[in-house]
Design brief:
With 204 residues, the chain is mostly helical. It is built from six helices and two strands. It has one domain (12-189). The chain has helices at 12-22, 39-59, 67-98, 115-136, 143-175, 197-200, and strands at 109-110, 179-180. The longest helix has 33 residues, at 143-175. The protein is globular, with a radius of gyration of 20 Å. 23% of the residues are buried.
Length: 204
């Protein structure tokens, strides 16, 4: 089972995130095509939704537009966030499906964070690295602000390396039966009209 996750190990996930940021077509189209419903398909979708979320979050902070524009941004944020969480669960479903024949040792350690959640965090950190780099390269700010942005970017790169280590350790441990994790469903109630009292008409 050693090579069970050879397609997503080492730096492959973060390299893909960076490749997307270099593409003029992203986030509308991936620079690499992926088989539908595969792990990589959902890694792509998760990153796409995070990128769209980032843009909407920026727009929602505007003060020179109408309240209706901000309300639309907030609705878009809610929609992308739901899709992002769904993609995380799909990543984990695919990973756990690969692990179905691995015998878990009685002494195996339990990981509270899923592999999909770590991949999601890698996606978000890649966006922070990208945009902090843009800030560090601005020509309209002073040297102090540029250095602050560069220092933050450097720390973010360390954070990304730490996350990659954790992802690889988790996948390796799971593939050898020495570690395991479970999918914890989000069960978002506010998007379900059966459970949100304002959507069901119980409250106004």
């Amino acid at each position: 089972m050693k090579d069970l996750f050879i397609d997503i190990d080492n730096r492959k996930v973060s390299d893909y995130h960076d490749l997307c940021h270099q593409s003029d077509l992203w986030p509308n189209k991936s620079p690499v095509s992926h088989e539908e419903n595969s792990i990589w398909f959902w890694v792509e979708k998760n990153h796409q939704y995070n990128c769209q979320l980032w843009d909407e979050e920026d727009k929602a902070r505007r003060v020179d537009v109408s309240d209706s524009d901000i309300a639309l941004n907030k609705r878009n944020i809610d929609g992308y966030n739901q899709k992002r969480n769904d993609a995380i669960e799909k990543i984990d479903e695919n990973i756990l499906d690969r692990l179905k024949d691995v015998k878990v040792s009685e002494s195996a350690w339990f990981n509270s964070e899923t592999a999909g959640s770590i991949i999601d965090r890698l996606s978000i950190v890649s966006l922070k690295v990208l945009h902090m780099g843009i800030q560090a390269n601005r020509t309209d700010i002073d040297a102090t602000q540029k250095k602050e942005a560069k220092d933050k970017k450097d720390r973010l790169i360390i954070q990304r390396d730490d996350l990659l280590f954790c992802l690889n350790q988790l996948l390796d441990g799971c593939s050898q039966g020495q570690g395991f994790y479970r999918i914890y469903r989000q069960f978002k109630m506010y998007n379900d009209p059966r459970m949100n009292p304002y959507l069901s008409g119980l409250l106004k």
